[in-house]
Each structure stands twice: as C-alpha cells, then as structure tokens.
C-alpha cells in the first residue's frame, strides 16, 4: 500500500517503513506525527484519489532526525561591469520514518 502526501509545499509518494527527508517540522526526535494531507491512496490496481484530499486518510510517521542539507553555492556575475556576488545556503530538513498508512 502506498500514499501520496503533501508536506512543506511538496508531494511525496510513501510506503510503510520508508525513510525520507522533508522540510523542517517542529517536532522532537522520537515523536510520532500524523500527516493528514493525503492526496491519493493506492493498493495494487486500486487507487483512490482525493478531491483534493482523501477523506479520513492519514499517515503516521516518527521523527528520526533533524539536520541540514549540503551547501548550495549561488554565484552571480555581470560581465564587464565588475560585479560579482557569492552566496551560500543550507536548507533545514526533518528525517521521518513512515509507520502506517490509514485509508
């Protein structure tokens, strides 16, 4: 069984037992969270798509870790104008493990 969830402005296809990194969620490590924005639930050939959300569906997950992604380097330059700008950015993330999918 799988589900398509929405969190942090992004959509993820998840199955039970899977680990994934999502945008930062304000929760403690080891805390169980419930993701209620389920867009679709599928099992084999059967797929239930919500309009826009599936009624009564939720995904239970446990927070495994918090961290920061690798640095993304931003470099802007205008040729012949003596303009250069360097920036870096590290995005925060939360790693979760999917426990169960309730349809």
From TrEMBL:
<feature type="compositionally biased region" description="Polar residues">
    <location>
        <begin position="90"/>
        <end position="103"/>
    </location>
</feature>
<comment type="subunit">
    <text>Part of the 50S ribosomal subunit. Contacts protein L20.</text>
</comment>
<dbReference type="InterPro" id="IPR036164">
    <property type="entry name" value="bL21-like_sf"/>
</dbReference>
<keyword id="KW-0699">rRNA-binding</keyword>
<keyword id="KW-0689">Ribosomal protein</keyword>
<feature type="region of interest" description="Disordered">
    <location>
        <begin position="83"/>
        <end position="103"/>
    </location>
</feature>
<keyword id="KW-0694">RNA-binding</keyword>
<dbReference type="InterPro" id="IPR028909">
    <property type="entry name" value="bL21-like"/>
</dbReference>
<comment type="similarity">
    <text>Belongs to the bacterial ribosomal protein bL21 family.</text>
</comment>
<keyword id="KW-0687">Ribonucleoprotein</keyword>
<dbReference type="Pfam" id="PF00829">
    <property type="entry name" value="Ribosomal_L21p"/>
</dbReference>
<dbReference type="GO" id="GO:0005840">
    <property type="term" value="C:ribosome"/>
</dbReference>
<protein>
    <recommendedName>
        <fullName>Large ribosomal subunit protein bL21</fullName>
    </recommendedName>
</protein>
<dbReference type="InterPro" id="IPR001787">
    <property type="entry name" value="Ribosomal_bL21"/>
</dbReference>
<comment type="function">
    <text>This protein binds to 23S rRNA in the presence of protein L20.</text>
</comment>
<dbReference type="InterPro" id="IPR018258">
    <property type="entry name" value="Ribosomal_bL21_CS"/>
</dbReference>
